[in-house]
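Posted in: Structural Biology > Protein-Ligand Complexes

Title: Requesting predicted complex, zinc ion in pocket

I'd be grateful if someone could produce the 3D structure tokens for the following input. Sequence and ligand are given below.
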Amino acid sequence: MQVAINSLDLLLSLTHHDENYLQLVRPDLVSTLLTFISHSPPSCPIRLERLARSLKRLARYRYNLEPLYAMDFHFMLAERLVWRECLRRRRRAGGGWCRRCAERKELGREVFTEFASLMDSEFGWSLIQLRLQRAEQTG
Ligand SMILES: [Zn+2]
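-- Reply #1 --
Done. Output follows.
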């Protein structure tokens, strides 16, 4: 377990430097990070906020937009964090989210907001136009 924590710690440190993004923005790494945020135990020494901050850094960097969009980052984020099912919800009075799920949903929304604001920029719109043109050309 300590090796995994140390590796994750190293991975998070690498997100502070945009020259590392070409190696970091890969479907397997991004998926692993999202899964870890979704399932990390309360005893994990790495705080969720730190994990989410790393994802936010990746999500708001302009040149990560295309590879993140290509790997369906927005769906991965929604499925793993924002739309997550709370197994305790039905048993809770009032049917609200448990604290663990509510916290992950909120972090997911925060990362989603970063990504959406970049996608909503002129750069994001031109990326969508390019993809639509390519789709039309290939039929
Ligand atoms: Zn829950």
